[in-house]
Amino acid sequence: MTSNPSSGRSLQPDAGFTQPKTLIVGLGNPILGDDGVGWRIAERVQARLVAGLEGAADLEVDCLALGGLSLMERLVGYQRAIIIDAITTRQHPPGTLACFPLEALPDHAAGHTTAAHDTSLKTAIAVGRSMGASLPEMIIIVAVETEQVYNFSEELSPEVAAAITPAEQMVLDIIRQGGPP
What we know:
Elements: E1 2-3, E2 22-27, H1 37-50, E3 59-64, H2 68-74, E4 80-87, E5 97-101, H3 121-130, E6 138-145, H4 158-161, H5 164-177
Parallel strand pairs: 1-3, 2-3, 2-4, 4-6
Antiparallel strand pairs: 5-6
């Protein structure tokens, strides 16, 4: 697993390069408390892949701290992406799991003028596709409801930490079934 906040990749994969079909991204910041849950889950999934999960050759796991355009660039060339992240909706208790396609994610940046570094993933994907980028047709979000994502800490709250194992299983089920549960 690599951490690559700026890949410097072009918007098209190299013709002679064969890469895995699915990219699993743990998104967040591991020193901001519950915001690090995406990394923790991705690390557990990576450990399972190393342990011999069938079909692991078609999978790659990465941990990233940046979303928007940087994340969009990282998705270039993959057929499918699973993004694991913290989410704060205040509609569910902390630790609640959700799984949905990117299209179902609210786009709070839509209709607003923002700087390029503030672009939402949905907007970044639309921009990338308009530029001819080879982006996944299927982007699945696995989210863990959180309340505190700005506290400087490497520790997760107990409720969010308890969601790691079920979230890991959810990601593995998505891999095996080819889509959301």
